[in-house]
DNA sequence: TTTCCACAGGAAGGTACGGTCT
DNA sequence: AGACCGTACCTTCCTGTGGAAA
């Protein structure tokens, strides 16, 4: 057994807490314009008027959620000075698929633990009716923050965004003034809303631009100053993190995550300083973990599809077309306890892989072959095969991968 | 120019499941 | 107990697309 030895870090982190996702900075860098718009949009609240519905959009990690928390905290404090009661209900819609579920979450957030409502089984109108009763019993101004609304299914989007803003005019609410704050990182979401829903929900729109490299540098410097000891970071480290994150879409959360991972690596290695090399390696590690995590969440038929694609790739067919993947998939699925799905379904899987960034899907065609799509793994085939080890064991080792190291690892009787 | 081929993907509907309501 | 509800996951059917062959 390896010797267990904990070493106290004395040169890297002063206080790592400042790099955590949950840390809320007192001052937000580079979002002055957005904060001003936000403040203006909320002016009716302090004046005791009906609140605006506000729609926030911008890519992930550009400060939408952080700004919301900061602004609403401030709003609650200041309005209580004026004797106005403001309640904030916040729901993250990630993992929820319908308005129905969002409404139940809201109800359960209002209700005490021992009176929680079950998540299915009710009629839709019953759910909304209950929600309005609960809101009305709170009374005053209520701001409902719905974060990550883009993760809701398109078909189910309209329900809550239609009901909530209209509840008062339809006579469901007597005591409460409700404003909806919708937050989306999908810039096209607005277009998929029904026109009447769009016009009510988007009374005030605030767009959050992506951070550029220099803004990210500011954000990172703000955190790093408190998180790390003086001289713990090599000169170019922050600039590098900022540049990499700017290239990846200007996501501040990712930039901070990258810096944190680099710091962790340096600490593990008992280094005196975080170097550019740590950053590069941290970036690789994060990428690898993201792939692993998304593969592990796939359902079994999807994993078999990925197995089909990976085995083809390992064989040297780097961009197989959908039909080829399906042929291999069918062969693999036959050995598994799972009934193979139809080609149509598999096309959906392949489309999902692309949107999850596991693969890259491209149109191809011409010639006598007609039109078709080709699929290419976005990460190392070895990593993918390792991540679906259990599936390989279940379906059996396909001849094309019999030389792969994963196979040696499997306990094949 | 028309027809055919091979594929992509939208629409609608089926089924099983876990839940509530009466 | 049985009607009913929302949802996940799937199939079936069908239309659209663009180049090749007739």
Task: Please characterize this protein's 3D structure.
This protein has helices spanning 32-41, 43-46, 64-81, 99-110, 124-138, 158-166, 195-201, 213-227, 237-247, 252-268, 276-296, 300-315, 322-334, 343-355, 381-387, 389-395, 405-409; strands at residues 54-57, 86-92, 140-147, 176-184, 204-207, 359-365, 371-377. The chain is of the alpha/beta class and 413 residues long. The strands form two sheets. Strands 2-3-4-1-5 form a five-stranded parallel beta sheet, with helices on both faces. The protein has a two-stranded antiparallel sheet with strand order 6-7. Helix 4 packs across helix 6 (158-166), helix 6 (158-166) crosses helix 7 (195-201) and helix 8 (213-227) packs across helix 10. The two termini are 28 Å apart. The mean pLDDT is 87. The structure holds a DNA duplex (22 and 22 nucleotides).
